[in-house]
Amino acid sequence: MSPFLAAQVADDWPPAAWRDTHVLAAVSGGADSVAMLRALHFLKQQSGGRGQLMVAHFDHRLRGGASTADAEWVGRLADSLNLPFHLGEAAGQSLASEQQARDARYRWLTDTAHQVGTRYVATGHTADDQTETILHRLLRGSGLAGLAGIPSSRPLSEVCEVVRPLLSVSRAQVESFLGDLGQDFCTDATNEHADFTRNRLRNEVLPLLREQFGPSVDDAIRRAGEQASEAQAIVRSLAEDLALAAAEVTRVNRIELQPSPFHCQPPLIAREACKLAWRAAGWPEQAMGADEWRRLLALLSTPDAAAIQLPGGVDARWVGDRVELRRT
Ligand SMILES: Nc1ncnc2c1ncn2[C@@H]1O[C@H](COP(=O)(O)OP(=O)(O)OP(=O)(O)O)[C@@H](O)[C@H]1O
């Protein structure tokens, strides 16, 4: 067992935090999640505890026979480690897009975690996934929240959360760990994203950046992500205060904004507070881009400006000393 990888996982997610609860390891059969499973299995054997480590695989039925072969392979790996195995399948038609496949997988993982009573679902996202995600979002023009990258944990429901114990382990370390163990894995179809840009970043852009600027580019990109994450936490907390003071979902499909508290806030905080109110009203956010939020903030800062139309059938206008947003 390569001491580095197990020690790194134990540092990031100490066994004391999970050895007494059940953990569902989401294993695609690819190198990353197989390495995560072997590391968690090793740490579990060392640390004992009342919890049970379990293996979960979701057959997306995307690649015909190949995806079923992966499912069988993961089942055999679980057997060989003496771990319970849970297999899910995409129902009916095969899932059309990568996003649909991902949504179906997380839904099934959450349902399975509820059924078997696991508090944690562990996934094998690595430091390389983190670097690619941050760079990809930077190129797509994401805001601070997006630039923060993949969180080390996030809630899946009120009773369970997803954790990423390999987030500071590189893919090269994964490969050397598996090599040392003599552990094979399925060809990682999950590494070939349908997303053309993501594949180019992984296979062309990042290798070129490393060649030109040295391997520290990965750390530099991830550090930017960490700082974005810290800054976003501050923005979020200030925006929550502002939303509490000046934004109210007054009835179904109506939000009232009190403009004056917005005036003394930087646009970043004001925009985030508007987003929080929008989310609290349950309105779809996807079509609200940077321009749309800017138009709403401009309306807020200009008393009696003409009404504006926003995506999702939202009308925003001054009514007396307030700005009212109505969704029709
Ligand atoms: N078919 C699967 N069954 C179980 N777990 C899976 C499966 N596919 C992926 N996973 C889990 O998700 C992790 C990340 O895989 P992948 O990079 O394909 O994710 P993704 O589809 O990009 O979505 P996201 O990054 O949002 O999870 C894997 O390391 C593994 O833990």
UniProtKB/TrEMBL annotation:
Coiled-coil portions: none
GO CC terms of this entry: cytoplasm
A Pfam family assignment: ATP_bind_3
Family annotation (InterPro entries): Rossmann-like_a/b/a_fold, TilS/TtcA_N, tRNA_Ile_lys_synt, tRNA_Ile_lys_synt_N
Positions bound to ATP: S28, G29, G30, A31, D32, S33
Record remark: domains: The N-terminal region contains the highly conserved SGGXDS motif, predicted to be a P-loop motif involved in ATP binding.
UniProt-recorded name of the protein: tRNA(Ile)-lysidine synthase
Native source organism of the sequence: Posidoniimonas corsicana
Gene that this polypeptide is encoded by: tilS
